[in-house]
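Notes from the 1:1 (GR / supervisor)

We went over the backlog. Supervisor wanted to see one worked example end to end before approving the batch request, so GR pasted a single chain during the call. The sequence is below; no edits were made to it. Supervisor asked that the structure be written out right there so they could see what the output format looks like.
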Amino acid sequence: MGRVGLLGRIMLVLLGALSLLVIATFGIDRWQRNHERSPYPSRFPRVDQAAHIVSLLRDADPAQRPAILKAVSGEALKAEIVAAPPDEAGLIREPRLEARLLGIAGEPAGRIRAFTDAAMLHRGVDPAEPAAARRGPVGRLAAATYRLPDGQTLVVTVIEGHRSHMPWLLGQPLSLWVAVLGVAVAGLVTLGARHELAPLRRLTEAVARFDGRAPTPSRAAHQGAPEIRRLAQAIQAMQERIAGLMGERSLLIGAISHDLKTYLTRMRLRAEGVAEAGRRERLVEDLDAMTALIETSLSFARGTAAEIGRSPVDLADIVAVEVAEHAAQGAPVSLTGEEVRNATVAGDAVALRRVVANLVGNAVEYGRSSVAVAVRRTGAACQIVVEDDGPGIPEAERAAVFSPYYRVERSRSRQTGGSGLGLAIARQIAEAHGGSIVAEAAASGGARIVVTLPALA
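Structure output shown during the call:
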């Protein structure tokens, strides 16, 4: 159920309710049919009715018989008086029904005859088997005859085609019509629910597109139910506040960067004027470290507010350039996949090269003897893989290393340099390009960083 959307949940509830309605209607229909045509003597309303008709006509004045016959005849039974007994061809004598008729009417044996037929015989009973030898359920009453005191014969016939008006409509079971109506209602509810949920889907798409970098967030149409319109208005106001805060943040970052660089430049000029060489070198070294730290921190902060450019970038080219620069400085870096021709993504070449520079720089710094870099295309994605044979990253800290200012103290302490922002900036840029970055264990025991970016179609 966790994967079923709101529309699917509404439809499941509706279909469940309709299914219960159909089952209940079908059950009532079957119960009524079984009740009306029960194979057991204790549930024979037609037998009891026929016995009372016999008693009524036996005791009635002969002049009143035509009126009584009209009154008792209907859709279920037909009563008539004939001069001679009817033909019993096709009928099956049912002594147990006769015994019930005789008991209710109070007549001696032989005066009433009860019959069933093959169509009304209970399922599983052999019509050729004598009625007296049957041990299973008896057949339903098809006809009964009674010789009146004046010698005429009363014939009571059960109308087998009779059905109650309640479970049948236009010749079809009511449960069938309920099922058809349920399907029609489900279709209408589906269309209506899709129409009502359309504004919510558009609002979701607008929220998914919002990243805070655009100066003016996209506006979602305020349509649909009042609750959805109020939600859209609240989200629109929140996006505008976030966009305003991000704009102010960009201005603040620019002002801080300008002012800090001005003061650091002045301090460096004054430090270079110090006569004592040892003291001058320490001051310049501290100022350079401070400048690098501030530049890195501002770059990280600026990256969350800057808009990423979108143009085709060949990952194999930028990786090859970065690897060549480290190899020229004597670093043991190897590259595979530089010949991949379809490792192209849509993004900012400068930002992506910074990701490669950070990852290769870390691997060179913490690797012991070798660094392996690979570029590859896997399906609809491109990957950059950087491996080293250094101390590696503990499994419990592989997600935390991408947090700002986080270091694995065991191997990447302050003595080894670094501000703890390299991997954080790499993740920031990768996610801004719609990709991801993960840390794994290399086969050599060191760290393995994998950057995955969506390939350009």
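Supervisor's comment: The two ends are 34 Å apart (CA to CA).
Batch request approved.
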